Amino acid sequence: MSYLERVRSLNPLVHNITNLVVAPFTANGLLALGASPFMAYAHEEVADVARMAGAVVLNIGTLDEKVVQAIRLAGQSANAHHVPVVLDPVGAGATTYRTDTVQMLVRELRLTVLRGNVAEVAHVIGVPWNIKGVDAGVGEGDRIDIAERAAQQLDCIVVITGQYDIITDGYHTFLTSNGHALLTQVTGAGCLLSSVIGAFAAIAEPGRDMLNSVVEAVSTYGIAAEQAAARTAHQGPGSFQIELLNQLAQVTPSLFSEHAQIRQIRGG
Ligand code: ATP
Ligand code: TZP
Ligand code: MG
Ligand code: MG
Questions:
Q1: Given this model, what pLDDT does residue 100 score?
Q2: Cα(42)–Cα(112) distance, rounded to whole angstroms?
Q3: What contacts 9, CB < 8 A, 6 or more positions away?
Q4: For the residues of 166-212, what is the DSSP string, one character each?
Q5: What residues pack around ion ligand 4 (CB closer than 5 A)?
Q6: pLDDT tens digits for 84-123?
Q7: Domain residue limits at 76
Q8: Best label site of 192, 206, 224, 260, fewest CB within 10 Å?
Q9: Average per-residue pLDDT in the chain?
Q10: CATH code of the domain in which 246 resides
Q11: Does residue 176 have its Cβ closer than 6 Å to ligand 1?
Q12: Can you tell me the ipTM of this complex?
């Protein structure tokens, strides 16, 4: 059974502490895929929700102290109960507050997956890279090197997205090139991918199974975007955003086998 089929048959509960911009889109995307989204922020309940979830997705997109504390409580509970944790360090590097917060979070929490654009991941490990708000700018470093260094330092899977995507545990590295430029015109396309990765992490075992599942998640999401673009590119980003939800519901293992563009560049 493919990881996608496992997501659809197990319908994992994904606890999201995400930002104000993307919450409904994220919940709809997870539902379309076949997962069960749960947005919960209250300090009184986040530890309980994290414990019962298949995965916890933490996103600092519109952070404040209340959200940061909710993220810490959920993350600690997930760690204590061996629930996979995905962190999306939205805008790390754009302000000192964001950079300091993600660096505190990666010290305190054990991550399963860190997913961001190259600038965000670079700033998590203290490497300079231009960032404009939440969007990656131009930088001088090597994206693959940054991903592998971050994975080794944090002892987790790192996903750096962009025109092509890098997925690595620091020792085994994959490049995927599915996706479409229209994704850059939909706010929350990255945040939804982080939550989709959460759904695929929820149904995987720790270790190589987890890495393979995350690779399939990234490529599957990109294929859904390609299918959506083929149907709506002549209309524009609004139609594409809606069609992406339709295609997340319709993408199949055979479509994945036909279209996946995955190349392993490091490790056995
Ligand atoms: P940013 O704010 O820098 O756009 P993000 O958090 O929105 O970052 P992205 O890097 O845009 O995240 O990744 C979200 C999805 O969009 C991924 O599936 C990625 O493969 C895809 N993507 C991003 N840029 C392109 C592109 N130029 N062509 C094809 N797919 C892309
Ligand atoms: N501002 C704060 S969070 C956010 C914006 C625009 C959403 C970012 O989503 P993504 O997935 O990184 O494009
Ligand atoms: Mg983007
Ligand atoms: Mg983002």
A1: 98
A2: 23
A3: 1
A4: EEESSSSEEEE----GGGGGSTTHHHHHHHHHHHHHHTS-TTHHHHH
A5: 90, 190
A6: 999 999 999 999 999 999 999 999 999 999 999 999 999 9
A7: 3-263
A8: 206
A9: 98
A10: 3.40.1190.20
A11: no
A12: 0.98
Express each pLDDT in 14-32 by its tens digit: 999 999 999 999 999 999 9
- The alpha carbon of 92 and the centre of ligand 4 are apart by a number of angstroms equal to 10
| Closest Cα to atom 6 of ligand 2 | 187
The 10 Å CB-count burial string (b at 16+, else e) for 156-188 is: bbbbbbeeebbbbbbebbbbbebbbebbeebbb
Kindly report the protein residue whose alpha carbon is nearest to atom 8 of ligand 1: 117
* Residue 100 CB partners (closer than 8 Å, separation 6+): none
Beta carbon of 23 within 6 Å of any ligand 2 atom: no
Measuring from atom 4 of ligand 1, which residue has the nearest CA? 135
Note whether residue 268 is domain-resident. no
Number of independent structural domains in the chain: 1
